[in-house]
Design brief:
It is a single chain. This protein is an alpha+beta fold and about 375 residues long. Strand 1 and strand 2 form a beta hairpin. Helix 2 packs parallel to helix 4, helix 6 runs antiparallel to helix 7 and helix 10 crosses helix 11. The protein is elongated and about 90 Å long. The two termini are about 25 Å apart.
Length: about 375
């Protein structure tokens, strides 16, 4: 989710909160109007408690007390107008006051929880930026677009991971998925990304980068933990190297045809090599002008609709592929959300690389979320 979307959502939430006392006041006014028309008098006084009760869901304690005071005043007027006995009116007003005080306390507790949640979201957002660092719209010769969605919307971070760096050995990237969820998965993702960023700059060979990650996970993970990942590198023009460790195959787009990049030899996920004894293989393929490569996590391909049908990512990519990776990924993400009915139940990451044609002019640069930031150069 982009900062512009967050800002717009918070803006409307503030506007709703500011206007929230209007609805309770309208309810109280409607009860007065009904009494004036029907002349029921005391019968409507207990319903005045709906005013402070509704105010407690959106207003602060002062707003609740204000609506409650208005309800009490209106209740006195309705009772006196209907000729209600003093004892009966006193009991009804006392109940109304108790409800108002209880709602004010509830509002105060709700406000405290909202402040705690806002602080947690702020920390989570900072953690996300530290863990999943923003990817520029161009890295080396590539145009790049990224879209990440955490299943826990308020947390904004999860077990999926990605990184793309320019190194002395060319552009290198990783997309992976940590087994499990919650803070342990986030910690493992942070470990993998930290080792990858260091090894990508230190190791001349891509398989050695993968081996560094494997050794680190072997020292730090439990016996049942693992990470599926695709590690790729572009050491020189026209040559793309891919190492697949138990992950879903990337999708190559060439001449509008989508082809999965299956590994030459299946390899276990990172962290399980000691159990299987198998080592990953380096898959080399040509990657020329106009070619695109989509890497993703299983939160995309395992997303189901109401009929329990999986999202057809390859078909969606074929429909939405264009010369702008941001537009392609944005369209895929929108279609994915529509497929699941608006909310994902697992973390999902999409990372798309495109090799622009040499004759293409530099375009206006945009962040992976689609915001313009000026012109950019490869």
């Amino acid at each position: 989710m982009s900062h512009a979307q967050d800002h717009g959502r918070d803006h409307w939430q503030r506007r709703l909160t500011a206007a929230s006392p209007v609805l309770p006041i309208l309810i109280v006014s409607a009860l007065v109007l009904v009494d004036l028309v029907g002349g029921s008098g005391m019968a409507w006084v207990p319903l005045l408690a709906t005013g402070p009760a509704l105010a407690a869901t959106t207003c602060g304690p002062r707003g609740v007390l204000g609506v409650g005071l208005l309800s009490v005043v209106v209740g006195v007027g309705l009772g006196l107008r209907g000729g209600a006995p003093g004892s009966e009116l006193a009991v009804a007003l006392a109940a109304l006051l108790v409800v108002t005080l209880a709602c004010a306390v509830t509002s105060a507790l709700r406000g405290r929880r909202e402040r705690v949640l806002a602080a947690v979201r702020s920390v989570a957002e900072a953690a996300q930026h530290a863990l999943l660092q923003p990817v520029p719209a161009t890295v080396g010769p590539f145009q790049v677009a990224v879209r990440y969605s955490a299943a826990a919307a308020e947390a904004r971070i999860g077990g999926d991971l990605y990184a793309l760096v320019s190194t002395p050995y060319g552009v290198r990237l990783i997309v992976g998925d940590v087994r499990g969820k919650g803070l342990p998965a986030v910690g493992t993702a942070a470990l993998v990304l930290g080792v990858f960023r260091e090894a990508a700059h230190d190791e001349p060979e891509l398989l050695d980068v993968v081996a560094r990650i494997e050794r680190s996970l072997a020292r730090n993970l439990g016996s049942d933990d693992f990470v599926t990942a695709v590690v790729a590198g572009y050491p020189r023009r026209g040559r793309l190297e891919v190492v697949n460790c138990g992950h879903a195959p990337p999708l190559l787009v060439r001449d509008s045809v989508v082809v999965p990049v299956e590994p030459d030899r299946p390899a276990p996920p990172l962290g399980l090599r000691a159990l299987s004894g198998e080592t990953p293989a380096l898959h080399v393929l040509p990657f020329d002008d106009g070619d695109q490569l989509l890497l993703y996590t299983d939160g995309v391909t395992e997303a189901r609709d109401h009929d329990r049908e999986f999202y057809p990512l390859a078909a969606g990519l074929a429909r939405h592929t264009c010369d702008d990776p941001v537009d392609t990924v944005t369209a895929l993400h929108a279609e994915l959300l529509a497929h699941v009915g608006g909310r994902l139940h697992d973390d999902a990451a999409l990372l798309l690389l495109r090799m622009p044609a040499t004759e293409e002019a530099p375009a206006a640069c945009r962040t992976p979320d689609g915001d313009h930031v000026g012109s950019c150069s490869p």
